Structures are given as structure tokens and as C-alpha cells.
């Protein structure tokens, strides 16, 4: 006797709602209008049976990308620790005792040497991060020089320096900056539980300046902060409804660092993390979805699921900013086992 398939009415409804929303979004894009994603439509995607969600994410992914290709960005902390902000996840905040030593801005030669090494390892983008609330004038000159020199190596450049005003964004564009990373981090209604020293609107304003300056936007968030699924959907809605949505969306899984207020938070279920990647892919079909912080603690099989869900970029190199990332050899072995090639690699 054949087994009887039991499908709940709720999951059928969720599936139908998600498909309708995704189709509407695709139609809106074709007609040149902006697709608005409601939190409900995103929750309906989250609520799909895992296999259906993965299938849909792959379908979308394959319309826009080679699903066997991954892009590599290497991070360098050019100014570490002592940050005035109080982001509850961050080991670099001066508000918490984490053992991270504050350093001054790195000399230009050291930055160029690190970029050269990253290029030699196969990275195509070099991302420089500074633990600042916002850069000062003198900092801007020195970072602009770094951008010019890294760009001269033939790499894409990205910096993340905290809040920017319009003049600063224009200055970075003149220096040749390709991407600016500034994350929304979480849903607006959860945000105040995590950060008190700058507002959600401050972040949106910086993103506007970056966009207006003609710099590509790299903007994502962090999960595993103790947020609910609805709040994860709220973050994705904020990102997907930016007009246009970011070219690059890093999805970070909290790296718990002793001394930060969020150390000890219950980790997110691995499948829920994969679902978040899939939902980002479906709602932002043409963005680079970057599987970001948290890979060091992730099994290879889970990383493979993230690629299947539509992630097509990673941070590459044994260090993120202050915490560990998989060794390059481990990543190369993983890509080889999965038959994935890295972008920029000869076919
Ligand atoms: N200071 C700049 C800023 O916050 O705009 C740039 C650097 S900051 C470290 C960039 C992002 O890294 C944060 O927005 C957050 O999403 C992520 N991040 C920081 N600490 C993390 C941690 N412990 N685990 C996972 N992601 C983290
Ligand atoms: C992003 O979204 N993740 C990166 C990058 N942008 C700058 C940073 C992750 C930091 C993880 C904690 C650390 O190493 O200090
Ligand atoms: Fe500072 Fe950025 Fe860390 Fe927040 S996330 S404390 S702004 S370095």
C-alpha cells in the first residue's frame, strides 16, 4: 500500500503565498518597478518545507549565476579595537572586555602587502575594515591612498569604516572605491536590544550617501543574536526593499566572543541559517549573497547547503577581522570536493 502524504493546509497556504509573492516580485522587476517584500511574504518563504525552499532558491540562483561558482573576498582589519560603538556582538567595542587590543591605523605598505598576498591566493576583492564610529578627515586621506593602491593591483576594493556623510562617500568614490560595507544587522524592532550608540536611521542614511555617490552597496546582517524568525524576515525585508537592493549581502552567523553581551546566546538552528540564505537569494535574485562570519564553526556539509541555498561568495583567508576563518587550503579542498570553481579562475 502506498503511504498517504499528509500536507497541512497551513504549509500549502504558506507555499502558495510565497510563490505568489516571488512571482509578483519577478514581474515587478521585469516591468522596471520596485518589488516590495512584506515581512509576511518573507515569512511564507521561511515556512516552506525545506526541500521546496531549496528548490526555489536554486531556481532563482541559476537564472542569474553559475551555481558552481564562488567569489572570494579577503578581509583585513586596518584599524582594530577600541571602537566607541556598543554593538553587542562585537569584540572590537571599547565597551566590553574581550582581550582585543586596540591598534592604530595600519601603514600603507602593510595593507598593500596583505592585498598582494590575498590576490596571490585567489581573492578578487579586498575588504578593509576599521573599528570606527565614523572616519576623520585625516583617516579619509590615508584610506583613500589604500584604496588607490589596492585597486592598482587589479582587485575590487571594499571598505567598512562606520558612518559616512555625503562628502566622505564622494571622496571614497573619487579614490576609486568599488564597494562600501555597512550592515543593517537586524530588524528595526530588535535593533535597540543590540546597539544603543547609533540608530537604524543613521545606518540607512549612510547607505543613502554611499548609493548617491555611485559606490556599490554591500549590506547585510547578522543572525543568531537571539532574534525571532519574524525578526530575521524583518531584516531581509529591509534589505530587499532598499531601492535598488544591495549588490552584495553578507549574512553573518554570530561568532560568540567572551566578554561581549551576546556570548552565551542560544545558537541558531543550522537549517534556519540555511533558510535565511535561501530567502536572501530569492528576494534579492541578482545580489552576491556572502556566507560570512561563522564559517569556522560550520561543518563542510552545512556550507555546501548554504551554497545550494544560493550563497555565492565567502570571506577567504584564515582571519575575518579579529576572529578565525577557515584556512585557505581547507576552503580550496571544499571547493574541489564540491566541483566549484572560484570566480576569476580560468575555466
Ligand atoms: N565598524 C564598522 C561598522 O560596524 O560599520 C565595520 C566593521 S563591523 C565589524 C562589520 C560587521 O561585522 C557588523 O555589522 C556585523 O554584522 C559583523 N560582525 C561583527 N562582529 C561579529 C561577530 N562576532 N559575529 C558575526 N558577525 C560580526
Ligand atoms: C561583514 O558583514 N562581515 C565581516 C565584514 N562585513 C566586515 C566582518 C565579520 C567580523 C566577525 C568578527 C571579527 O572577526 O571580529
Ligand atoms: Fe565598532 Fe563596527 Fe564593532 Fe560596532 S561592529 S563595535 S561599529 S567595529
Automatic annotation (TrEMBL):
Q: What class of enzyme is it?
A: transferase
In what pathway does it function? Cofactor biosynthesis; biotin biosynthesis; biotin from 7,8-diaminononanoate: step 2/2
GO molecular function terms noted in the UniProt entry: 2 iron, 2 sulfur cluster binding; 4 iron, 4 sulfur cluster binding; biotin synthase activity; iron ion binding
Q: Which residues of this UniProt protein bind [4Fe-4S] cluster?
A: 83, 87, 90
Q: What SMART domains does UniProt report for this protein, alphabetically?
A: BATS, Elp3
Write the signal peptide boundaries.
Answer: 1-24
- InterPro entries in the record, alphabetically? Aldolase_TIM, BATS_dom, Biotin_synth/BioAB, Biotin_synthase, Elp3/MiaA/NifB-like_rSAM, rSAM, rSAM_sf
Keywords attached to this entry: 2Fe-2S, 4Fe-4S, Biotin biosynthesis, Iron, Iron-sulfur, Metal-binding, S-adenosyl-L-methionine, Signal, Transferase
* Gene Ontology biological process terms, A to Z: biotin biosynthetic process
Q: How does it assemble?
A: Homodimer.
What role is this protein assigned?
Answer: Catalyzes the conversion of dethiobiotin (DTB) to biotin by the insertion of a sulfur atom into dethiobiotin via a radical-based mechanism.
Supply the name of the protein.
Answer: Biotin synthase
Protein source organism:
Paraburkholderia madseniana
Amino acid at each position: 500500500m502506498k503511504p498517504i502524504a499528509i500536507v497541512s493546509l497551513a504549509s500549502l497556504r504558506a507555499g502558495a503565498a510565497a510563490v505568489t509573492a516571488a512571482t509578483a516580485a519577478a514581474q515587478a522587476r521585469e516591468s522596471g518597478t520596485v518589488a516590495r517584500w512584506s515581512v509576511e511574504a518573507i515569512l511564507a518563504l521561511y515556512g516552506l518545507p525545506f526541500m521546496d525552499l531549496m528548490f526555489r532558491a536554486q531556481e532563482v540562483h541559476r537564472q542569474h549565476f553559475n551555481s558552481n561558482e564562488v567569489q572570494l573576498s579577503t578581509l583585513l582589519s586596518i584599524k582594530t579595537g577600541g571602537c566607541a560603538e556598543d554593538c553587542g556582538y562585537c569584540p572590537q567595542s571599547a565597551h566590553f572586555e574581550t582581550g582585543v587590543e586596540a591598534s592604530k591605523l595600519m601603514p600603507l605598505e602593510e595593507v598593500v602587502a596583505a592585498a598582494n598576498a590575498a590576490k596571490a591566493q585567489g581573492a578578487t576583492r579586498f575588504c578593509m575594515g576599521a573599528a570606527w564610529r565614523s572616519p576623520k578627515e585625516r583617516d579619509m586621506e590615508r584610506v583613500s591612498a589604500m584604496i588607490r593602491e589596492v585597486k592598482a593591483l587589479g582587485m575590487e576594493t571594499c571598505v567598512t569604516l562606520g558612518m559616512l556623510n555625503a562628502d566622505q562617500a564622494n571622496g571614497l568614490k573619487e579614490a576609486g572605491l568599488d564597494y562600501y560595507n555597512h550592515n543593517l544587522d537586524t530588524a528595526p524592532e530588535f535593533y535597540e536590544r543590540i546597539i544603543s550608540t547609533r540608530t537604524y536611521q543613521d545606518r540607512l542614511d549612510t547607505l543613502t550617501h554611499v548609493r548617491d555617490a555611485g559606490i556599490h552597496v554591500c549590506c547585510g546582517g547578522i543572525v543568531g543574536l537571539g532574534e525571532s524568525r519574524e525578526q530575521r524576515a524583518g531584516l531581509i525585508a529591509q534589505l530587499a526593499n532598499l531601492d535598488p537592493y544591495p549588490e552584495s549581502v553578507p549574512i553573518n552567523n554570530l561568532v560568540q566572543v567572551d566578554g561581549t553581551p551576546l556570548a552565551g546566546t542560544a545558537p541558531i538552528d543550522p537549517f534556519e541559517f540555511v533558510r535565511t540564505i535561501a530567502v536572501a537569494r530569492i528576494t534579492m535574485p541578482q545580489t552576491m549573497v556572502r556566507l560570512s562570519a561563522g564559517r569556522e564553526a560550520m561543518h563542510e556539509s552545512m556550507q555546501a547547503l548554504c551554497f545550494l541555498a544560493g550563497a555565492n561568495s565567502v570571506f577567504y583567508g584564515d582571519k575575518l577581522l579579529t576572529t578565525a576563518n577557515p584556512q585557505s587550503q581547507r576552503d580550496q579542498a571544499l571547493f574541489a570536493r564540491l566541483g566549484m570553481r572560484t570566480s576569476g579562475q580560468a575555466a
